[in-house]
Amino acid sequence: MSVAAFVAGVDRLLSRGHELFPAGGPGGGQVFAAGGRVPVPEAPDGHSGLTGGARAAGGAYQQAQAGADGLDGDSGQAVAQGGEVGAQGRAGSGLIRDQARAVGAATAGMGRSPAGAKLIMAAMDDHLAAMQRQLDQTTAENRLLAMRMRQLAAGYRGLGAGGMGGGMPLSGLGGLMSGGGGGGGLSGLSGLGSVPGGWSRLVGSVRGGRGPRSEEAAPRGDVGTALGGLTQDSSPREVAAAIIHEARRRGYSPHQTIAILSTAMQESGLRPRAVSPNGLWRSIFQQDSGYPGRNNPNTAISGFFDRLAHHGGPSSPDIWKSIFWLQQRPGDSSAEAAVAHGRRGYLNEIQSQLPRATALYRSIAGV
What we know:
The protein has helices spanning about 5-20, 50-105, 115-165, 170-180, 200-205, 235-250, 255-270, 295-310, 320-330, 335-340, 345-350, 355-365. It is an all-alpha fold.
């Protein structure tokens, strides 16, 4: 299989994964309209047995009605949450697909060499794995929602069995189990069951028996230059060599190293003296004043890696999102949260240097 065919196959598969999520936005919770019912009339005055029975029945009805109103509200929230799960899954899966397309387009000319082909395939594998995680996350969230819905349905059935007869408007039960339309209910992965053989089989068919990720083109021995010798006047190539050496020393893969290098190229052009127009961000990775060593290129690089280690590090399932997290929204709870709430255009910006970063990496690492 050619590299171009592999990339095209990955795009088809990622598009298939994206289509599993409903196109409709969140909604559906509004079908559970608690309240608005006619109040139970007061029993007539008197002390007869009929009056006492009417009062007791009215009190029981009011209590059941209050319980139904509470269930209606909880049901509406559950259905609305189901719609939100679907909308978030669709947005996340679409971002994964679009990122893969951008990387594929940027690296199209590199597949002619074995090393370049392996780097491209490693990047595509990362996006396949990211889609798998998105599917797994949404499936897990839907399981929790399904459990909650079953609990609510049992609550409605309990009210109906309490002798209220057909007069008790158990409005939530029907919509609860059907999802209420409009993207509600368990719509977060509405098409998962339609994938023949499941996602894993589709991924295997695209990979076509290729070797594991351990075959990624990695240089042998030390590469680049150890930190300590950079100055404010060091050249971009010298800075790149230091970044590559430090990334390899800390356990980053070639694909991850190239992503870090691409980020530095976009942020500063690999220039230690780079300063943002407003003067707030400086050096190779455009760091703020929270980095005490940013004015020294050696400590600017080590400081970046120190903090990246706490935002995914070499074990990051998506190095681009980890970099986004560190550079754009380091205070967020996760890379996914950072991307969801941050300026997503930053991902495209740092990935725009991928062809040049890959060529520079190969030149320095000798692969």
